[in-house]
Amino acid sequence: MTETVLSTAVPPKGESGISKTKRMPHIQALDGVRGLAIALVLIFHLLWSSPRSTGSAWMDLLLKIRSGGWVGVDLFFALSGFLITGILFDSLGSEHYFRNFYVRRVLRIFPLYYGILLILFLVFRPTWADGRQFYLLPLYLQNTPFWWNGSQSSVIKDLTGHLWSLAAEEQFYMVWPLLVFWIRDRRKLLWTALALALMAPVTRVIMLAHGATFEATYKMTICRSDSLLAGAWLALAVRGRRKDMVLRAAAPAFFLALLGYVAIVMQTRSFGWETSRPINTVGYSVLAVTGIALIGMALRPGSLTAAFMNLYPLRWLGKYSYGIYIIHMMIGSIYTTFIYEHLHSKMLFHLAVPFINLAITLPVAWLSFHFYEQPFLRLKKYFGPA
């Protein structure tokens, strides 16, 4: 969702990042990583299934794997932490550090987000009594107890529940740029990111021990910052002298972390965060390592991962992933009930839902990007580093 920059010079004098650094062009493989993330989210949201057994062991396994598509959000978090921390660190020596960062983020995130909220308000006219969740959305509080302790019947809640991840990111970026600006030293920032990332699973364990719900540990920023901070750690690590060593270690780290997650799933017999305590304690941290390892593998030119992430369909999905993510759940509300009532075949229903959704969502996201979001994005050139 932001431009990709990767420093090719090691900042001197304690690696403070104040000196000017060279910048590499856009890394297309990272668009593919973003495309993979949105593909996983689409699989999770669009391939509907019954929680009951189908009678087929293979089909039950397939549906369980589908239920793990939510990990695409964790990959988004890791990539966001990687990209934005790189921008923050590389910009430390420029004027208007905070102004440029926050204005550029506003130009990327706010137009579509608040445009959608305006449409929802005009269509549903939610009152405080029947849709108070709506009034949390402009404040990015949809990942807090104010949201899930509210009315369970709100249409707004059904249409926008997936936007909790945007709130987690925006809350994180109200704090992290301040730490980067204050600490500045790359090595100290590496240790800071690592220490704060380790606090996330500890916080989840403590919260669950005191009666917190899985929804709280899944959505609250303080509980999910390990993926964002892991991405931040990787961005800082590849800007140092041990960049090649870090990237070489990415593949073994990926497979070890993946095996760890598979072990958790085998123990709990579930891919879903809604029912698994191990996932809500250490599982998210394991996914954070998996995410940054995958990014590291994609950064190695000539690797199989880089080649896969450079596939055009993945890069296309990645380019329009922000619009796709926001829009796809709302598009589904238009036709799902109608199809359910008129298609008597369960198989046809499960095929029709994703097909129709993608046939509408993808063109709408494309049109939104080129004709609505792009005019705002062009303004970013006035708020870049010197």
Q: List segments where confidence is low: pLDDT < 50 over at least 5 consecutive residues.
A: 1-5, 7-14, 17-22
* Structural class category: mainly alpha
How far is the N terminus from the C terminus?
21 Å
Shape: globular
What Rg is obtained from the alpha carbons, in whole angstroms?
A: 21 Å
| Proportion of strand residues | under 5%
- Could you give a short account of the major beta sheet? none
Secondary-structure element series: HHHHHHHHHHHHHHHHHHH
Q: How would you state the average pLDDT, rounded?
A: 88
Query: Based on DSSP secondary structure assignment, what is the total number of beta strands?
Result: 0
Share of helical residues: 55-70%
Count up the helices. Answer: 19
Structural features, described:
Helix 8 (164-172) packs across helix 12 (221-237), helix 10 packs antiparallel against helix 12 and helix 10 (186-209) runs antiparallel to helix 15 (277-298). It contains 19 helices and no strands. 70% of the residues lie in helices and 0% in strands. By secondary structure, the chain is an all-alpha fold. 39% of the residues are buried. The two termini are 21 Å apart. The radius of gyration is 21 Å and the shape is globular.
